[in-house]
Amino acid sequence: MREICDETGALLIFDEIQTGIGRTGKLFAHEHFNVTPDIMTLAKALANGLPIGAMLATEAVASAFGPGAHASTFGGTPVVTAAALANLETLVGEGIVGHCAETGAYFREKLLWLKERHDTVTDVRGMGLLLGLVLSDDGAPLVMGCLEKGFLVNCIQGNILRFAPPLIITREEIDALIACLDEML
Ligand SMILES: *Cc1c(COP(=O)(O)O)cnc(C)c1O
User: Fold this and answer.
1) Whose alpha carbon is nearest atom 5 of ligand 1?
2) Containing H/E element for 54?
3) Ligand 1: distance of its center to the CA of 176 in Å?
4) Which residues line ligand 1 (CB under 6 A)?
5) Which end of the chain is more exposed for a tag (fewer CB within 10 A), N or C?
6) What is the pLDDT of residue 71?
7) Which residues form the signal peptide (predicted)?
8) Right CATH number for 96-184 from 3.40.980.10, 3.30.930.10, 3.10.580.10, 3.90.1150.10?
């Protein structure tokens, strides 16, 4: 896509609202692919729960905007931007992004272990702490079973369990979830 955009002069925009801010084990997911977008959007995790949205652009693209050209009712308020800054300083300064990469790799290994043990698990997808367990069956009963044991798990497209845990999740917590899934599978 980067190559096509460069050839045609189109802008490449990455929506990193879910994949950014450490989730995939790097601060931004595009860093895994050595590709830089012209524009990137961020929100949600940026201020760790306080409402914020941001559009980042390269110098060349940003120069097309003047003050007031791109507004947002609650964008860039002092309290929320202070929270975003504190959040980024914590994530980067306290090694949370690295923790995300490490525990994500551990989590992925454990999901692959489940795949080896259970024929109903057909694939493991994702990176960092954004992972999917693809099932040959309906995933809804597993979601309910997990909930009864105290784990909030999402099922998407009917048969994929989607894991997007807090970035501070521990190996012990991952082990407990895996044991729960193993038993139910
Ligand atoms: C939530 C979300 C949006 C919308 O973000 P707003 O801050 O509500 O505009 C866009 N893209 C993705 C991937 C999201 O998860």
Assistant:
1) 43
2) strand 53-57
3) 30
4) 15, 17-18, 43-44, 53
5) N
6) 77
7) none
8) 3.90.1150.10
